[in-house]
């Protein structure tokens, strides 16, 4: 049985963790000559303007966030992904882990490469981790990366260590 990885999904939240995961995924994609799918999930903005009214969603703010997210994700993809790799930008609105899992199924993704933020203690108990939920429910294998990534350094980090 041979392993073929044609499509790699990389969730991005613009944290340093997810940017490192993207750099790692690019190298992975080069090895397998895989297409890269970058996804950013905008969580709907809910404002409780007055407790008697409950919560309401503000669509105009969400639409503006979608546009900005697409611009930023496109810019990041152009900076980090070589031109010879096929790339797709996906912006979704909703709960991140749900949208990541649904996108993986819809696009027939072979591998998800996702950063873990290393939350611990109370924060982890209260919020759980998007990466953990993706691992549990994904329709394909998931590679989770936690900083520092063993055996993997970026050129600029190596220069810093050498003191240049």
From TrEMBL:
Residues 5-146 form the UspA domain. Its main location: cytoplasm. The keyword Cytoplasm applies. The keyword Secreted does not apply. InterPro entries: Rossmann-like_a/b/a_fold, Universal_stress_UspA, UspA. One of its GO terms (cellular component) is cytoplasm. It is found in: Cytoplasm. Keywords: Cytoplasm. Belongs to the universal stress protein A family. This is Universal stress protein. It comes from Ignavibacterium album (strain DSM 19864 / JCM 16511 / NBRC 101810 / Mat9-16). The lineage of its organism: Bacteria, Pseudomonadati, Ignavibacteriota, Ignavibacteria, Ignavibacteriales.
């Amino acid at each position: 049985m041979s392993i073929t990885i044609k499509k790699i999904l990389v969730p991005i939240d613009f944290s340093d963790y997810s940017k490192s995961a993207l750099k790692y995924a690019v190298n992975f994609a080069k090895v397998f000559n895989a297409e890269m799918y970058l996804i950013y999930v905008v969580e709907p903005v809910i404002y409780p303007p007055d407790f008697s009214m409950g919560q309401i969603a503000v669509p105009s703010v969400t639409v503006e966030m979608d546009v900005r997210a697409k611009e930023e994700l496109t810019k990041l993809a152009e900076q980090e992904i070589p031109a010879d790799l096929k790339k797709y930008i996906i912006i979704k609105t909703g709960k991140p882990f749900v949208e990541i899992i649904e996108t993986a199924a819809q696009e027939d993704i072979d591998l998800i490469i996702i950063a873990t933020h290393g939350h611990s203690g109370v924060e982890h108990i209260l919020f759980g981790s998007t990466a953990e939920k993706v691992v549990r429910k994904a329709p394909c294998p998931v590679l989770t990366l936690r900083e520092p990534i063993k055996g993997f350094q970026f050129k600029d980090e190596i220069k810093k260590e050498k003191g240049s």
